[in-house]
Write a structure and sequence with these properties.
There is one protein chain. This protein has a domain at 1-37. It is built from no helices and 3 strands. The chain has strands spanning 20-25, 29-34, 45-49. It is mainly β and 67 residues long.
Amino acid sequence: MHYHSGILEDLESTKPNHAVILVGYTPNYWIIRNSWGDERGMKGYYHIKMGNHAQICTHVAAPTRDP
């Protein structure tokens, strides 16, 4: 809620509470699009340090297509 810039590092969470979309990355951080609107973060985007912060690596959903 109070994030406006920089790289978020301290996001240890025990369980997810909403979905975000990973839209890009750099060698140091993921670029995340939040679903809470443009008023939060950097016009709706966040930079989160690489790693399993907020359990990003363990709670993943991806689209699939039927064979």
